[in-house]
Design a protein that fits this description.
This protein is α/β, with parallel strands linked by helices. Helix content is about 40%, strand content about 15%. The strands form three sheets. Strands 2-9-8-7-6-3-4-5 form an eight-stranded mixed beta sheet, with helices on both faces. Strands 10-11-14-13 form a four-stranded antiparallel beta sheet. It has a two-stranded parallel ribbon with strand order 1-12. Strand 4 and strand 5 form a beta hairpin. The protein starts with about 25 loop residues before the first helix and ends in a 17-residue tail after the last helix. Bound molecules: pyridoxal-5'-phosphate. Pyridoxal-5'-phosphate binds next to helix 4.
């Protein structure tokens, strides 16, 4: 039921300073309409959890409650259970972050998803006005966490090989020349969200060296590293350097986001502070969810499941790339991810992906406009396209509809010059209301990530 009362905010002059810049992300505003069944949504970031053996997962969950309810339905400890932290170390060892690299259960802090991991690091290191360097574009939830910490994000451009080291050097120098000091580099080096690109082997060491020389911490966010379809990705940054690198990950994409279990591997000296900050936020991560992930990792064929996710996503990625190549008008460009969940597309010159959203929704296709992934309004020509959630034929249909919209925009532009914008309608959240009359609400929800 819709809430009652006025939408006018009487509390404006009482909010804390940090609330000032808080606005709904473009992705959140999109979901009201993108979730309707007749809309092909390429907008979400949801893994395809229907691929899990749901009956077996259900039995597993039942046993956790029946056999171990006295502990799993209780409060737990702030750092997370030892059993899960040990399993997390086994998972990380698989990508080279092992005991030799100083990874130990002692230094792992279990979090409520990868999102809390980012928020914790932001709370620990960012004062208002501090600078964070991050790839441009970057994960929208990280932008939210940095904004809540009243930090300023300076983007570092990428190309098909990931973050550009020379651009990182320039950004560090520019920030210093402006009298600021960047606190850390937030990076998603492998199968990046939203760009889908991967930092190459050669560049990884350079990026670490540049950060070390500049005294910059590295916050490596790696939710997708195990979701590759073209062989092994380069080893994580944390597998190459232990000092000054925070490693963040989550079971949201490799198992299921519903459990909300992620983690931080922190330098030893910082771990205690992370636990204290986490306790102040959440007391402790859910004991039941941790037991579920622990049981999943110890009693179920999770590596096989990972393979099945990889195969499904490869097929869907291929469907998207083929459809883009077959159907998109000339002048459209896109990345070719070797893993993860997203393709990042660039529209032909002069087109604006944000202004195109209402038109796309009328044609019953949804995507996330690129501006949501920048702190500075960049990304107007870009769209993020998700390929994990929809079946290959739906993906093709979605791209067919999208291509039609782009063609219409190009045709309009060839007649009128610049595509006309209606004053006051260029802000995506407001303009989405104009298309809210499409169909009935969908039953299935979608993640806003
Ligand atoms: C790069 C990145 N980091 C963190 C997260 C958050 O993960 P979680 O759902 O575990 O909070 C996401 C989710 O999409 C993500 O893409």
């Amino acid at each position: 039921m819709a809430g009652s009362g006025t939408t006018l905010d009487d509390y404006t002059d009482r909010y804390a300073q940090r609330v000032r810049g808080m606005t709904a992300s473009e992705i959140r505003a999109l979901f009201a309409v993108a979730n309707r069944p007749e809309v092909v949504s390429l907008a979400g970031g949801a893994p395809y959890v229907s691929a899990l053996p749901l009956d077996a997962v259900g039995e597993m969950l039942n046993r956790i409650a029946v056999d171990h309810g006295a502990s799993t339905l209780q409060y737990g400890v702030g750092q997370g259970t030892v059993e899960l932290r040990e399993h997390i170390c086994e998972v990380m060892a698989g990508s080279g972050i092992d005991g030799d690299m100083g990874a130990s259960p002692e230094d792992v802090v279990v979090t409520v998803g990868g999102q809390q991991a980012i928020d914790l690091v932001a709370r620990l290191f960012l004062d208002p006005g501090d600078v964070v360097l991050a790839e441009g574009p970057t994960y929208v939830g990280a932008l939210g966490a940095f904004q809540a910490a009243q930090a300023r994000v300076v983007h570092v451009p990428m190309d098909d090989d990931g973050l550009i080291p020379e651009a990182l050097e320039t950004a560090i120098a520019d920030v210093a020349a402006a009298g600021h000091r960047a606190k850390f580099l937030y990076t998603i080096p492998t199968y990046q969200n939203p760009a889908g690109v991967t930092l190459t082997e050669e560049r990884r060491q350079r990026v670490l060296d540049i950060c070390e020389a500049a005294g910059l911490l590295v916050v490596e966010d790696d939710p997708y590293g195990q979701l590759g379809f073209a062989g092994e990705p380069p080893a994580p940054l944390r597998a190459r350097r232990r000092d000054g690198v925070f490693y963040l990950s989550t079971f949201s994409k490799t198992f299921a986001p519903g459990f909300r279990v992620g983690w931080v591997l922190a330098p030893h000296a910082v771990r205690e502070k992370l636990v204290i900050a986490s306790e102040a936020q959440i007391l402790c991560p859910s004991a039941y969810a941790q037991a579920a992930v622990t049981a999943y990792l110890s009693t179920m064929p999770w590596r096989e499941q990972l393979k099945s996710y990889q195969e499904i996503y490869r097929e869907r990625r291929d469907a998207m790339l083929t459809a883009l190549a077959d159907l998109m008008p000339d002048g459209t460009r896109w990345t070719r991810p070797d893993g993860g969940l997203f393709v990042w597309a660039t529209l032909p010159d002069g087109l604006n992906a944000k202004e195109m959203v209402p038109r796309a929704l009328r044609e019953r296709v949804a995507y996330v406009p690129g501006t949501g992934f920048y702190a500075d309004g960049d990304g107007t020509a870009n769209l993020r396209l998700n390929f994990s959630f929809s079946a290959p034929d739906r993906i093709r249909e979605g791209i067919r509809r999208l291509a039609g919209v782009v063609e219409q925009e190009l045709a309009t532009r060839s007649v009128f010059g610049e595509v006309p914008t209606i004053p006051g309608r260029s802000e995506a959240p407001g303009s989405l209301l104009d298309v809210a009359e499409i169909g009935a609400p969908a039953v299935e929800g979608e993640s806003a990530s």
